[in-house]
Write a structure and sequence with these properties.
Layout lengths: L6 E4 L14 E4 L1 H7 L10 E4 L2 E9 L11 E2 L6 H5 L18 H18 L14 H6 L2 H33 L1 H9 L4 H37 L14 H18 L1 H8 L3 H7 L8 H35 L9 E7 L9 H20 L4 E7 L9 E3 L2 E3 L13 E6 L3 H4 L4 E4 L13 E5 H8 L8 E6 L2 E13 L14 E5 L7 E8 L7 H11 L6 E5 H8 L1 H35 L1 H9 L4 H30 L15 H27 L3 H6 L2
Parallel strand pairs: 2-4, 10-15, 12-14
Antiparallel strand pairs: 1-4, 2-5, 3-4, 6-16, 6-17, 7-16, 8-10, 9-13, 11-14, 12-15, 13-14
Helix pairs in contact: 5-9, 5-11, 5-17, 6-10, 7-8, 7-9, 11-17, 11-19, 11-20, 17-19, 17-20, 19-20
Length: 687
Amino acid sequence: MQFGAKAEIGLFLSEVDYKSGQQLVTVISDRLWRTRFASDRTIVGRTVILDKLIYTVVGIAAKNLKPPDGADAWIPLSPTADMEQNHTFFMFQILGTLREGESRERLNAQLALIAEELVKLKPDLGKDLKITAQPLLEYSVGDARESYLVLLGATAFVLLIACANLTSLLLARGWGRHREMAMRAALGATSRRLQRQCLVESCLLGLLGGAVGIGVAILGVDAFRAMAPAGTPRLDEITTDWTLIWFSLAISLLAGLVFGAVPSRRAARIAPLEILKEGGSGSVGGFPKFGNALVVLEVALAFVLLTGSTLMLQTLAHLLRQNPGFRTENVLTFDLPQPPAPPEKNEQAFADTQIERISEICDNVGRVPGVEEVAAADHGVLSGMRFVHSGLELEDGPSDQSLLQGNVMERYVSPKYFRILSIPLVRGREFDQRDVRNAPKVIIVNESMARKYWGSLDVLGKRISISRAGKGKHEWNEIVGVAADVRDLDIQSKAEPEFFLPLLQRSARSYHLFVRTGGNPDALAKAVSRQIWGAYPDQPVTHATTLRTTISETIGDQRRHTILLGVFAAIGLSLALLGVYGVVSYSVSSRRQEIGVRVALGACTVDVVRMIMRQGVALIACGAAIGVAAAVAMTRFIAGELYEVKPNDPATLVIAFLLILLVGSAACWIPARRAMRVDPMVALRYE
C-alpha cells in the first residue's frame, strides 16, 4: 500500500484500519505537519477533525513522499453502498505495482479482457469502454509531456544556432590567424599541437557560455515557477540542482569539442610554406562557402522557432478574445467543500439539511455590502470538471434515441444562476423559489441537447426521466426552459449537450458559490468568507477567485508556452542575425581590395551596397526557404496546443518569411555601409 514510502513518525495505514467498526485514523503529510502543527511530534496519537469527523493521527509521512495529487492527509477508503452498486462510478484512481517478471503490455491485455466482460454484463457502459494501465509518472505529467518536449526541441534549436555561430567565429578567427599558425608550424609546432590549441580555445568559449547560461537559468527557473499555473505537474521539483549544472557544463564542453573540430582540423592542415610565400595577402578562400552554409542553417532553425512562436501567439490571442457565453465581469466565486454523504437511511434528512444550509449561505452572503446577487451550483465553470449522466430517458424523443446511449453533462444550479452569469434563456423560465423538494420536478436543457435529441428548441413541457444508469425509480422532470449554449467546461471546448437541475430540489456533494458584485470583486473576497464563517464556522471556503482570473488560469499553459517559445525564438533569431552579420562583415573585410578596384573603375556606392546586400539577403532567403519546409514538417508537433489556427497556416509562414527577410536585411546593412566608405587608394595600397 505504501509503494516503498516510509513514515517519518508513527505508522502508515494498515489493513486493520480498513475494517468496518474500527476507529477512524489518518496519516498526514510532512508539509501539513510543519505548516499547521508546527512540527509537533506529539501530534501522533492525537485527534483532528476532517469533514466534520474525528480522526486519530497514526503517522506523519516522510518528507520525500510527494503524491501526484498533492494530498496532505490519507484516510482509509470506505465506499458507500451507492458507489458499490453504481457500475458507472469511475471516480477512483487505482495504484499498483507489477509482479516481478510481468510486463505492462500483458497487464493491459488482461485489463482489455476485463473491459469486454464488463460491457457484456453492463451494456450501458458502452462498447468503447477501455481499461488501461500506465506508469504513475507518465500519468502525473499527462499532456504536459508533449508541451515540454516541444520546448526542449526549441532549446536544442537555440543550442544548434549558437554552436553554428561558434563554428563561424572560430573559422573566421582561424582564417584571420593563418599567418600565425603558419609561423607556429614553421617553428616546429606539430599539427596535433595546433589542433589541441584550437580545441582548447573552443572548449573554453563553450564552458564560459555554459557558465553564463547557468546563471541565467537560475533566474529563469524562478521566473518560470512564478508564472506557472498552480496545477503544473511537479512544479515544486523544478529547480537548478547540481544535476542540471553538471549536465549544462557537459553539454557546453561537448559543443565546444564537436563544433570546434572543423576549425581545429583546418588549423592542423595548414601549409606554412605556401602561406608565408603569400605574404600579407594570404588567401582566405574556403571560408565563405562553409560560413555561408552555417548561416543558411542558422536562419532555417530560427525560422522554425519564429513560426512556432507566431502560431502560439495567435492561439493565445484567439483564446483571450474567445467569448465563453457568460458574464465574467464583477463575478466572484468560491468553493464550499461538503462532508461525505451518510448511509442511505439518513440520506433524506442529510439532503434537507444541505439544501437549507446552502440557502442560508446564499441569503447571508447577499447581505454583504457591495454584493448584488448570489447563486450556487454543484461545481464551478471553466474548471475542466464535468458530471455526466447515462441513465436518461426521453418521453417524447425520437424512437431511435428514446434511451440516451451517450453521457450527457449535468449541473445542479440554484435560482439566479443564469441571471448572474447572464446566460440567456432562449425558451421558458429560470429556476425560482417554487422549485423546492416537494414541488414537481423540473429541468432546463441547453440548445445543444434540445437540437440533438428533439431537433428543435420548442421542447417546453416535454419530460426527461433521470435515474442511476437506467436503474432505480423513474423521476419524470418537465422541461421548463432552454438555456443558450456556453463554454462552461473549458474555454477551448464547444458546448456539449447539458441539462440543469434545481439545487433546491436535490442536494449535491459539493457546492460552488457565484457572487455578483457592484464593484471590484477582489475587495469583497474576505468579507464574503467572514460572512459564511460567521454562520457556519465549520464550513471550509476555498479557491476564492474571480471569473476573469479563472479564464486567465485556464489558458495559463498556452500563455506560459507562448512566452517561453517566444523567448527562444527571439534568442535564436538574434543569434542567426548575428551570424549573418558576421559572415557579411567578414566578406566585406576580405574583399576590401576588390571593392577598392571596383570603385576605382567607376562603381558607385549604390552598386557596392547592392552587391553586399545581395549576398546577405540571398543567404537569408535560402535559409528561410529551407525553414519553410522544416516548419511545415515540425509545427505539427504543437498542433495539440493550437486553437483556431492551423499548424501550416500560409499567412503565418508568409509573415515569418517577410519578417526574417526584413530583419536580416537590417543586419546586412551595417557591413554594407562600411563597404560604401572603402577608400580605393587606401585599399589598393595594401596590394
